[in-house]
Amino acid sequence: MNTRPASAVASTVPADAIGARPALPPAFKTIGTTILLWSAISALGALQTYSDNLRGGVDSHYPTLLLTWFVEYAVPLIVLSAGLSMLLARWPAPLARPRNVVLLFVALVLVFQPLEWTWMAWQRGYLHIASLADVRQLLLKMLLVGWFSTTGTFAAILALHYWRQARERELAWQRSQTDMLGLRLALEEQRMLALRAQLEPHFLFNALNAISALVRDGDKTLALGGIGRLSDLLRYALSASSRNTTTVAAELRFVRDYLDLQRLRYGERLRVHIAGDDELLHEVECPPLLLQPLIENALRHDLDCHAGPGDIALSFAREGDALAIRVTNPLSAQASPNPGAGLGLANTRDRLRLMHSGASLQAGPQDGRFVAEVRLPLLDLD
Q1: Within a domain: residue 3?
Q2: CB–CB of 226/264 below 8 Å?
Q3: Most buried among 124, 252, 314, 324, using CB within 10 Å?
Q4: What digits encode the pLDDT tens for the residues 183-223?
């Protein structure tokens, strides 16, 4: 027989459910509140009667007055509150229509109010009826008794019921919004992971391509040096893949190492001018592997398109509340007609958008050069 350890069974029970008392239904809460409320009203009413009797010189006993007030006034209204609460809890949907509420009030007038009058008349000893004149006299005595309290109780129970329904709808809406937000965050996180998984093999392919070019040229010493540099780059890439953000300074160090690897392939043709490297870069956050795809794109559309030296520029500048990072290279006749549509740039643009709504990547030709510009918001750096 397959059995589960007691610890495993216990682990399936939510922690907040252990030892928790079951919550009372709203109807019982309403009844309890009503009993307390009318007990307080009975105590105040009995106190007022007792005070009036003292001023009038009438001897009275406060506990007896309190019991009379509670039995005559509070008991019928507690019964009304209990009945309405049970009714609204069992059949809430039909009472959402105004016509049904009116019918319920008519039933209250035709059924409950006469029963309340009869109860109060019995408590006061008015039920000794010998003729129709006694009935008429009794109606005149009781006609104005209890209307305000009965109608007020009816309105209060309905108002409390509708407030609870509105509150439940609001809480349900808030829960749905929270669930939707959690789902969106989970989807965005999965998308970020998918982009990383797509980008890292792409980076590895291009780095290995640089080393394979050295192997084909027969330069084993440089190829072995390139493998060593590639291992350092992969170590950073693997470390960065476990984080959502890094700093621009760390990315710049990674790009310098990446350029050293590519320099084994391109030699003196690889010329990259870096400007604006200052302390600000150590504080600005960015997605991992942000700069490498931009440099790689510049290499592919500059040095791979001609035999002469390259002219790639990487600059950093603070512009208002953003850090502007620009990677530029000369446009070549042999370059792609749309050099900004590569996989690396597309992934970089998506990862920037996922990191912060104010981060962006714009790429396109400007004054005879191809410019890829990243803008990162400066958050709480001043």
Answers
A1: no
A2: yes
A3: 314
A4: 666 655 655 555 455 445 656 666 677 677 767 766 667 77
